[in-house]
Amino acid sequence: MTVEAEQAIPAVHRGEDEVPFVDIGDGNKLRVLQVIANEGLWIVENIFQAGYEVQKHRHTGPVWGYTTSGAWHYKEYDYVNRAGSFLYEPAGSEHTLEALEDDTRVWFHMYGSNLNLDAEGNVESVFDGPGTLEAYYALCDAEGLPRPDVVTG
Amino acid sequence: MTVEAEQAIPAVHRGEDEVPFVDIGDGNKLRVLQVIANEGLWIVENIFQAGYEVQKHRHTGPVWGYTTSGAWHYKEYDYVNRAGSFLYEPAGSEHTLEALEDDTRVWFHMYGSNLNLDAEGNVESVFDGPGTLEAYYALCDAEGLPRPDVVTG
Amino acid sequence: MTVEAEQAIPAVHRGEDEVPFVDIGDGNKLRVLQVIANEGLWIVENIFQAGYEVQKHRHTGPVWGYTTSGAWHYKEYDYVNRAGSFLYEPAGSEHTLEALEDDTRVWFHMYGSNLNLDAEGNVESVFDGPGTLEAYYALCDAEGLPRPDVVTG
Amino acid sequence: MTVEAEQAIPAVHRGEDEVPFVDIGDGNKLRVLQVIANEGLWIVENIFQAGYEVQKHRHTGPVWGYTTSGAWHYKEYDYVNRAGSFLYEPAGSEHTLEALEDDTRVWFHMYGSNLNLDAEGNVESVFDGPGTLEAYYALCDAEGLPRPDVVTG
Q1: How far is C152 from chain A (nearest CA, A)?
Q2: Global confidence as pTM
Q3: Measured between beta carbons, which residues in chain C are less than 8 angstroms from residue B93?
Q4: Cβ-Cβ contacts under 8 Å for A133 (sequence gap 6 or more)
Q5: Per the count of CB atoms within 10 A, which of B112, C108, D57, D99 is most buried?
Q6: Is C126–D123 a contact, with Cβ atoms under 8 angstroms apart?
Q7: Gap between the Cα atoms of A93 and A89, Å rounded
Q8: pLDDT tens digit string along B94-122?
Q9: Which of A88, A89, A136 to mutate to test the interface with D (most CBs of D within 10 A)?
């Protein structure tokens, strides 16, 4: 009994122009490359300007960050992410992002949700892949861009 | 260049007696088989008595349930899980568990966290693998059981 | 900006009768509950009769086995899987399955492929989720069963 | 019963200089950022020179490629990966990599093994994370570099 699939499954490519960055305020940018809702997977790329902050949050799944330009850090740690930095954020990690230089560019490969925490550590709001995709589409619409072909399977 | 590891990694076995069930109230039981904190993975087995309820919660990662005896359902759906039932709960699924028969036994293979929701849909509390493991150990201690050798890697 | 999805994703249930066991020879049985081809996920349940063997194989992803009746072991290890046994087989684990009692029933939750090894350790064949699903469908057809509604997303 | 872990798990950072590229022949380069052997996860970054080829292989788990400079393609497809390209290679995908420009730089986030195929489609060899890590360490030793602190959990 041979039980390997006959057919190879194709790889899926998106060029930089096919999935554009949109402005999320003050020159900070977002594009969403892939969301597999059932798996809790979301992959985005950001361009941050110096001073941009992301509210303290806790991850419920593992996250990886690949920085390709600029500089940013988590306020809770001493190290600085620069071009070529690799960052592994296990499930249960918790931190506050701050961009230190303009045009700081980072890929984030994420599983699970971001639990956004208030000063007392309570969950104030939740960010996840499907919600981020809806927001990205809305921002594309607002900028008059055609709906990008984000990979959703 | 051969780049497959020489050494096979061993499989890890736990017999039923090595990881005992503890009472979580009214004859309902829990045992925790594995927690990989970094991955957000937690695997538990429950024995529920008729009428047991789990607060409405939303999953941030995928979950699988394998039922081996009894009957239970999610109040939001018509189907009933019985011996041999397979249940796939994608990330983003949301429901309220109710046991319908005594000695209902279910394996849960879970990624991510349970966001426990109040009547307005706000996150009231969060359950995750490491927290559940701490609770399990405390319940073992309280019953005078030796600390079980839960798989944590 | 609220970025959590509004809509909860439904959970997916299959009762034991909806996804039947088929004979894979000598009273040994297989049913395939779920295959997510893109992720390399495949979930099956087996019923083995005493003496049944699975060729030595190496896993390329992690695998979990939940035994609910009977007895089986890997020839390479001393422990025996019985009702209530939990088994974690990391990626890179390698072993030869042998059933020790009739009506040994096991759920397998698997990522990746089985690399079936000959006596010299060469890869003789490969089993994966999509190939196993094709084989399962063919066996259902051969038994005159309607095509079962295996979860494929 | 509160069952979320008290302690946040720290994130793990590696700067570009901490995990150096090594030469794998003809100016092509590799560095290995992370291997979680049990999960089948391996994350590498490559710098390819024009004309570099990787033997046709099949993936047993999903793979993602983030290109940050240069140009490369799979011979089986028309599209070209350039700076900003996103590539999703599902489990079961199969292809032959060729670099088209010098200093082509790509992050690969991989689950499972590469099954290297001969002209008849037989598995000639297997590459996995632990084996690639061993090879990387050996190349570091050969270049007289200190052993890099690859993330292995």
Answers
A1: 12
A2: 0.96
A3: 8-11
A4: A32, A35, A42, A150, A152
A5: B112
A6: yes
A7: 6
A8: 999 999 999 999 999 999 999 999 999 99
A9: A88
